[in-house]
């Protein structure tokens, strides 16, 4: 038994229930051009799990019968799925807001030179990870050369209008701490990022989201090996705030894995925790009725303290005030 399991099994996270569904978050597969230390999906270039066209069409049918307003595409590098552009195109034609969780370096990979233009042409919102504005820190977390490639990707997006006032092309950056600590104030860090990236690289962006590292998968295993997993869980638990429960992303989102199975969030997906509103054997998107989600219980466990610690944390950054 690993050092992680007993802590996850304590499960004294408060019960939470669903609010109206607004967002469909889709993991298009685990293939990625990077292998980051904190990656909670253990993505990398050799992963073979990729959503197929049939499942992509099931997603579109679900969108048609549900109140979903936003399609949030993640991975791996979602753009490496061969059906990415088809899905984006059809969703945009139906008036759905599309977010691409982009690692920035993909924009600089051979074969993806026109990706930025595609995203701009379809007014896709770009949400990009940049865990620090200092080169050494980014490279230590995400790999050698990642910082320079990320800056090149940001400049490419800026040249297309992303992050610029009045362009309608939204560019948000995501910060997560380098180790087992809580993120600092989102507002203060956003100012520091804007000042540094503007001065040093001429890069602009709209918002900075700060998120805590979730104590699951690769990050949790690394902490366990270092004997720091228990202390990090205690830090998250001690910093829990009940007021953050209102805004956790699972209340208005469902998360779909590359096979089409549905979960209460991306983190539960990685832990194979089935949707609270469905059977323990799992629920496929083709069988999901939106009405069955209304007010349904959400599957929670102790990793959920990563969402409610301190200023709170979701795929949209801090949840409330500082
Ligand atoms: S870029 Fe994102 S998906 Fe890819 S390895 Fe890093 S954290 Fe994981
Ligand atoms: S980990 Fe998932 S289920 Fe738990 S609080 Fe966060 S978003 Fe909700």
If you had to describe this structure to a student in words, what would you say it looks like?
The radius of gyration is 19 Å and the shape is globular. An 8-stranded mixed sheet has the order 6-5-4-3-2-1-7-8. With about 325 residues, it is α/β, with parallel strands linked by helices. Mean pLDDT is about 90; it is low at about 1-10. The chain has 11 helices and 8 strands. It has helices at about 5-10, 55-65, 85-95, 115-120, 135-140, 145-160, 185-200, 215-225, 230-240, 265-270, 305-310, and strands at about 25, 70-75, 95-100, 125-130, 170-175, 205-210, 255, 260-265. The longest helix has 16 residues, at about 185-200. The chain has a single domain (about 5-310), classed as TIM Barrel, CATH 3.20.20.70. Bound molecules: iron/sulfur cluster (2 copies).
Characteristics:
TIM Barrel; alpha/beta; 8-stranded mixed sheet; globular; 31% helix; binds iron/sulfur cluster
Give a summary of the structure in a few sentences.
It contains 11 helices and 8 strands. The protein is of the alpha/beta class.
Kindly state the number of beta strands. Answer: 8
**How many distinct helices?**
11
The percent range for helix content is 25-40%
- Strand count, sense and closure of the main sheet? 8 strands, mixed
Could you report the average pLDDT, rounded to the nearest whole number? 90
| Low-confidence segments | 1-9
> Which strand order spans the largest sheet, edge to edge or round the barrel?
6-5-4-3-2-1-7-8
Q: How many domain regions?
A: 1
The succession of helices and strands, N to C, reads HEHEHEHEHHEHEHHEEHH
Question: What small ligands are held by the chains?
Answer: iron/sulfur cluster
| Broad shape | globular
